[in-house]
Amino acid sequence: MTKVELRGTVEAGARWKPRVVAFTCNWCSYSGADMAGTARIGYAPNVRLVRMLCSGRLDPIFILKAFEEGADGVLVSGCHPGDCHYVQGNLYTRRRLEVFANLMEFVGIDPRRLSFAWVSASEGVKWSRVVDQVVSQVAEAGPVGSWAVLHAPSTLAPQPRQPAQPPRQPPSEEEVRQTTLNLRELARRLLENGEVSRIIGYAHSAGGMSAAPAFIDTPEDAERLAWSANSPGNLTAYLSGPNRARRPGKTAVVVKTCDARSLGGLLRENQLPRDEVVAIGVSCSGQWSGGRLAAKCYACESDISPLADWSVGAGGIADGPHPGTARAVAPDPRDAEIAALASLPAGERLAFWTGEFDRCIRCYACRSACPMCYCETCIADKTQPQWIPAASSGPGNFAWNITRAMHLAGRCADCDECARACPSNIRLDLVNHSISRSIERSFGSRVEADPAAVAPLTTYRPGDPDRFL
Ligand code: FES
């Protein structure tokens, strides 16, 4: 395949001309462009067409790649809703692109660089109008040309991580001790009865109170289990994917309320059978570290997930999720940080995020910590084609962090373990949470623990937001 050269749009002494990459579906928009040609309808010559069978094939990484290769703008075009030759491909794409466009705006990409249009095979005139409009708005936005233009140094101070007063107190030492004893008691029982062959839980790490993952296979070993006011790590990451540590038979896993949402996601995505996993919900007052409550815990309404097969707390052990008791919640502090970032001019937002992603050392700790990153071969590890540059540098880091966020869109359990695992303290929590909020705003749905709940980006409604021209 011939590689289309996009770089170097500003030739020495020449006037800059915008370059736009248009991803078109074969059956409608590409034919519409063809129709414009055969009917000799003129349009701006700045567009390079990439033909796909259906707009449903469009992965946002294609758009990122086009920008990385030097495109100044991208147009995505497909059949009108109801006309897709694969029936619903364009309706799924409409949802996906709505989320992607919101994310691009959040990280500071000028919205004039990204356009969408419905163009049918008979709409040569519309194709020509759309291309002219897109090229002129990209011309107004100016050249991207190279990553160096996108990449301005960040002048922003880091955002405060915990601005608000926590809505509740950490558990007392006695509560933690009783919870640990009850957890050990349940683990012993389950292993002795042969109900499970392994329990994945927490053990005190050698250094003290923080908890490390523990894999318990015998009743005697149950003594190693522990609970603390800070039990970090989403242990459902050990149920599937490269970290898989399940044993034949049933494996029990200790889950906090947020972790259970990813267990629900793994079940929904058929990554493990429900009858091979036992969820032990431990009464959680939130993750406390140095007297600070994790941001994700402020608005968490339930101390035990409804997905729990067993509930364990200081008060005892119960079969199934224990009846919920009302508890104090407060606005999620991540929302305030996202609103503060969103209020900045686009250039400053871009500077902030390029500054964040610049610190990425591509250790993939975020991927390892995430239960929903279970692909056998991650797109970041693929070399043919290499969608994401492997080097830890501007373009590769931006593509990796945005692509991972999009792969988790509508699937992320909001557990923030990726941000906690990140040795460079990149605000991945804000990226993921902003996507969750954008899905909530656009489609009125959020990621649920219930495995039967439909994931927001695997469905559509005829009245979904439509930013297509
Ligand atoms: Fe044109 Fe699906 S075939 S959008």
Concise structural overview:
This protein is an alpha/beta fold and about 475 residues long. It is about 35% helix and about 15% strand.
Structural descriptors:
469 residues, alpha/beta, Rossmann fold, six-stranded mixed β-sheet, four-stranded parallel β-sheet, binds FE2/S2 (inorganic) cluster
Task: Report on this structure.
Strands 6-5-7-8-11-12 form a six-stranded mixed β-sheet. Mean pLDDT is 87; it is low at 1-12 and 151-155. The protein has three domains: 20-149, Rossmann fold, CATH 3.40.50; 173-319, no CATH class; 333-458, no CATH class. It is built from 13 helices and twelve strands. The protein is of the alpha/beta class. It binds FE2/S2 (inorganic) cluster. The site of FE2/S2 (inorganic) cluster has 13 residues, from helix 3.
Outline the fold blueprint.
Elements: E1 20-25, H1 29-38, E2 47-52, H2 60-68, E3 73-78, H3 89-106, E4 114-118, H4 124-141, H5 147-150, H6 173-192, E5 198-204, E6 211-216, E7 251-255, H7 257-268, E8 277-282, E9 288-289, E10 292-293, E11 310-313, E12 316-319, H8 333-342, H9 346-358, H10 365-369, H11 394-407, H12 417-421, H13 428-443
Helix pairs in contact: 1-4, 2-11, 3-13, 8-13, 11-13
This protein binds FE2/S2 (inorganic) cluster.
